[in-house]
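Lecture 7, part B: from sequences to assemblies.

Below are the input chains for today's worked example.
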Amino acid sequence: MSKAVIAALLERFPDAVTDAYEGVGGDDCAFVAKERIVEVCRHLREVERFDLAPYITAVDYLGMEPRFEVVYNLVSIPRSARVRLRVKVPEGDGCSVPSVTGVWRGADWFERYCYDMYGIRFSGHPDLRRLFMYDEFVGHPLRKDYPLRGRQPLVPERQVDENLRGPGPATRD
Amino acid sequence: MVSELDVVPAITTRREEALTGLQGLVSKGLGWARKYSIFQYPFVTACCGMEYMTVSAARYDLDRFGAMLPRFSPRQADMLMVVGTVNCKQAPILRRIYEQIAEPKWVVAFGVCASSGGFYDNYATVQGIDRIVPVDVYIPGCPPRPEQVIDGIMLLQRKIQDQAHRLVEPRPLPPSGAHEG
Amino acid sequence: MTAPAHSPPAPSAQENDAPLPVKRMVVNLGPSHPAMHGVTRAVVELEGETIRAMKLDIGFLHRGFEKSCETVTWGQCFPYTDRLNYVSSIMNNVGFALAVEKLCRLEVPERARYLRVVTSELHRICDHLTLVGAMAMELGAGTVFFFAIEGRDLIWDRLTELCGARLTSNYARIGGVSRDLPEGWADKTLRTLDRVAELCEEIHGLLTRNRIFLDRTRGTGRVPRQDAIELGFTGPCLRASGEAYDVRKAFPYLVYDRLDFDIPVGANGDNFDRYLMRMEEMRQSDRIVRQCFQQMQPGEIIVQDFRYALPPKPLVYGTIEGVMAHFKLVMEGIKVPAGEAYSYTEAANGELGFYLVSDGGGRPYKLGLRAPGWPMLAALPFMTKDALLADLIPTFDSINMIGGEVEQ
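Predicted structure of the full complex, as structure tokens:
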């Protein structure tokens, strides 16, 4: 069922949708050009009935060019079909992708998450601001070049020295 | 179970700390009263909150220790029970709530994320709330079994009983005159 | 002498009810708040008692799940997944295991699949009990909270005997599950389920026709069907709005295609329907567990491939291959072939999705989580537009926002 959807997409948008393949476990996927993603999504929503807001996430392929990839996992409830669209986003040139919140309102927070964690901007998003991290945070944590333990504390932390702690639970029992 | 902690010494080297006679009785009385009427502020964040719900419910009843009633305003509480992970975004809020609770106050770190950060050693979490507020009792566990929590509360009760309680706490006067800066 | 003043004409009805000038007030339902399950900050703009606008601020429980998982081996991700939806943690474990097995193209043995279904459904009952108890408590029905927690405790006792932990179970492994059922566990669990069903009947009796509960939940937080789909709702909240979509029926996985159960679907999409959805789903989960116990056959509980599963101890102590396999698996973890996969299950709250990218090494390259509670939480400003402030509370409860999964 999903293969038919991909085939129809390839036919309808020959320059936007490329490299359709079947992934592991029977997932039907295709790459979509960055500029045409809103068109493709609108077609999928209105014609192919992929009504449910998709799961949008991003991957950082550090070292490869283009660096980021935004992945849209769509599901169609009436047709029981699933499709995955992958959009390559190069790091330069503002690192931005057109937002699909005009097609599904539910895509809103997923795109904010991608912005917060990876720094990918979504043009046309109504309210693009950080979702998880606080505004004073500098950087995008899920990028591969952000250190795991790169804490940016908001409150000055007390020094905890083990040898200053008196006999307490250590001498219990 | 609950072991012998430091008791208030009968002989001390500093005169103002000695609690003998009537003052000792008052201290023991106040300690007894305070330990059996703990008003907790449940600062619940994460999974340990589920065990907190269990320990307040009917089977492992925290009410028999007098510690049942949660007070959701820091002004009305005397024990800050930090349940679950505290991350860098939540830390200022924890600090502010701690400062808003009136003396005498105690802090219980419930769960291993509050005690030392747990296994979330990354950009987002604070490695133990004792980096933000002073803690009295640490209850480790991920999440701790309700019996462990009750053990922690009994430990806290022992600590409260043995602290020095006075009817009028000697405090340094606030600095008079204008603030510098 | 002035003429006697006649009384002024009676004011017309409109003048009498002339509204006072109002100004909107911004109230902060702060991150540390009893009704904000876990830590969510809701900044509401009120006009009187009516919410005109709401802004949600989350991230106070963000624990860096994805980044942590990128730095540990595949098998070590299981405790992290436990703490996502911490009231039904086995479902997260199973979801993650299914995603990895999809990438590795592993075939899980029969008995392991039944065990996964049994434990998942037991945790689904726990999740729904927690929701009903918390929702009732926040609306004032404290007794229901005690019944629900007692029911949850009884199920956790059974799961402690099986998994070792009450809450964060860490039960599933890549290729199967970690341990088999103890002696007599199935009978004990059936008796526990009987007792839980009794407690659910009591809760029904206390809540379902309760005037106060009905007045507060019926008609509030209404979400029409098309809006629910566009906003990305899944799970009980979507089914309460009238769309019969359940991943277990639409894209069956594990052994759900052999089991006979119904999908309740609501009519109105308000808070009362979401509550009824949970009560009915508990009954269906009970049915599923009983059928599984009847259909389950003895067998292996984990795939017999030492590249993925720890060998049994006699082989580890007795043969060279066993020792080597054990050593490699513990020190380096399993090796998942490079590629990407998206796997989805029906968690207690909706469609739980894991998007995995592997680079062929021993650690995940990317582990993306589709939290089922996320679209519902994001839609909260929509759901409470022009509702009373008091309606925010049952709405927030009924969408079952679990901080661990929403804030990863």
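Note for the exam: The beta strands of chain A are 17-22, 28-32, 55-60, 68-76, 81-89, 96-98, 121-123. Keep this in mind when comparing with the next example.
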